[in-house]
Design a protein that fits this description.
Layout: H1 2-7, E1 13-16, H2 28-39, E2 43-48, H3 58-76, E3 82-85, H4 90-94, E4 99-100, E5 103-105, H5 109-114, E6 116-119, H6 130-134, E7 142-145, H7 158-183
Parallel strand pairs: 1-2, 2-3, 3-5, 6-7
Antiparallel strand pairs: 4-5
């Protein structure tokens, strides 16, 4: 998506988690994707998972956002300026200040008041379909949240798309394992044969 947007002259912000159950930004292949997206002129933001820390106050929110920003900036040689919450709940939605930990909050009351919102968070357009929103002349400012694993050329249910993404990642890790053993001239012992 980042390449397509770059070719069309579109600049986007890509938000990454440090605690995702679906990907690890510290894996070489994934971190290279972060650097590649950055090199295409896109912004990098923090997709913050408050549930990881069991945050229940704005003071805790400030504390852990600061920790993650410092860590992410040092690893990826960037200066994150914006964050988005992951898996919102009542507390998170009440955190409407423009900034926390000096980071712009895309869930702030300011953005909620001037931008329409469209999201595919669970594999379907939860509020309005993007196509309908884009063709609505009354909507002039729009915040769109998309997830790359939710898109495919084939028509599939959201669950099928997520499972395919998980299977592709598992295959990538298996190939990494096999190739690492070859690279370091180690035996790759299996029940049926030795490579």
């Amino acid at each position: 998506m980042a390449k397509i947007e770059n070719e069309l002259g579109v600049k986007a912000t890509y938000f990454f988690q440090l605690h995702s159950e679906f990907y690890n930004v510290l894996e070489k292949e994934i971190s290279e994707i972060v650097f590649q997206i950055k090199s295409l002129g896109h912004e990098i933001g923090l997709h913050f998972d408050s549930h990881f820390f069991n945050i229940i106050s704005e003071n805790e929110l400030e504390k852990y956002l600061t920790v993650e920003k410092i860590y992410f900036d040092s690893i990826f040689k960037t200066n994150i300026e914006v964050f988005s919450f992951h898996n919102t709940n009542e507390f998170i939605l009440s955190c409407e200040k423009n900034k926390y930990a000096e980071l712009i909050n895309v869930y702030s009351s300011f953005y909620k008041s001037i931008f329409s919102y469209c999201a595919d968070s669970t594999g379907f357009w939860r509020y309005d379909r993007l196509e309908d929103v884009l063709y609505n002349p009354q909507i002039t400012k729009l915040q769109v949240l998309t997830h790359d694993a939710m898109w495919s050329y084939d028509i599939q249910s959201p669950r099928q798309r997520v499972f395919i993404s998980i299977e592709e990642n598992a295959l990538r890790v298996k190939n990494f394992y096999d190739n690492a053993l070859i690279k370091f001239k180690a035996k790759n012992i299996d029940w049926e044969k030795i490579y």
